[in-house]
Backbone:
């Protein structure tokens, strides 16, 4: 990893940025907010030119080797950049980490993926040094919460439920956080001037990627997370997974009707809430606080 250093502190880290499957599609608010917040905190994002989908664990259900090859291609492109990978999606982080672990433990899987890549793209993946990281863990482990707190312009001053989801909660994929009982996001929210709320389903699945095949079951899983967060006193739920976010946001109404539970709570991506606290998009932050007050009244 490359650092730019002045006489007192490290002021810049460099990463190959993997947007995941939705940040530049249905959830462009993630792309809107990750760029300015990273500039504020000294993270230099390098485009992975020509990146592709990681398969979203949907392709894996029909063709595991294809999903591995898709991830090998992204890894090879990031290696060409010369920087480790960063993503703001817990699902993407989990998938990339699993692919790296598979390749490192199974040379045949890596050879098979590289054979396809060599024939179709003219590139191969080495996977010997590169790492993949979620933005959350980079902020806590590398940038430091003191630096984040010093950069806050608009403190959150809200009760916040943190949603991790299950995808990156495994040893080696979640930085120095506890895979079973994580608290990095709660620490980050505190640094941003918010009040983290504890609730029991913060790492539970909301059914991604089974929305189309297991509709009612997925809605009940989604409703449980939203209702747990609301009953715990949260004014807003913040999600570390851009794929799961659509369930927790766009499908709130349907989830509430199917499960017969109160699911009405503002849901925002982690990148949004960080950017808001750092002084970016104050109009959107004002709208969020208004929504939280109206829903809670």
Residues:
């Amino acid at each position: 990893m490359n650092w730019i250093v002045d006489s007192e502190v490290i002021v810049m880290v460099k990463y190959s940025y993997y947007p995941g499957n939705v940040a530049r599609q249905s959830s462009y608010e993630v792309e809107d907010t990750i760029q300015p917040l990273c500039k504020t905190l000294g993270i230099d994002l390098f485009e992975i030119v020509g990146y592709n989908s990681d398969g979203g664990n949907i392709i894996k259900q029909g063709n595991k080797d294809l999903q591995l090859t898709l991830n090998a291609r992204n890894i090879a492109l990031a290696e060409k950049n010369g920087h480790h990978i960063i993503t703001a999606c817990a699902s993407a982080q989990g998938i990339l980490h699993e692919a790296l672990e598979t390749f490192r433990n199974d040379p045949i899987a890596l050879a098979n993926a590289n054979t396809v890549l060599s024939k179709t793209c003219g590139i191969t993946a080495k996977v010997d040094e590169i790492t993949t990281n979620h933005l959350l863990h980079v902020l806590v482990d590398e940038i430091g919460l003191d630096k984040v707190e010093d950069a806050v312009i608009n403190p959150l001053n809200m009760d916040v439920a943190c949603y991790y989801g299950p995808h990156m909660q495994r040893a080696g994929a979640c930085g120095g956080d506890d895979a079973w009982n994580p608290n990095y996001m709660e620490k980050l929210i505190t640094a941003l001037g918010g009040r983290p709320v504890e609730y029991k389903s913060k790492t539970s699945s909301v059914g991604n990627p089974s929305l189309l095949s297991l509709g009612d079951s997925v809605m009940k899983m989604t409703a449980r997370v939203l209702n747990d967060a609301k009953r715990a006193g949260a004014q807003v739920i913040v999600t570390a997974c851009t794929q799961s976010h659509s369930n927790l946001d766009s499908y709130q109404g349907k989830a509430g009707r199917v499960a017969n539970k109160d699911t009405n709570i503002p849901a925002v991506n982690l990148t949004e809430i960080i950017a808001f606290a750092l002084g970016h998009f104050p109009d959107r932050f004002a709208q969020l606080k208004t929504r939280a007050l109206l829903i809670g009244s």
In short: The longest strand covers residues 10-17.
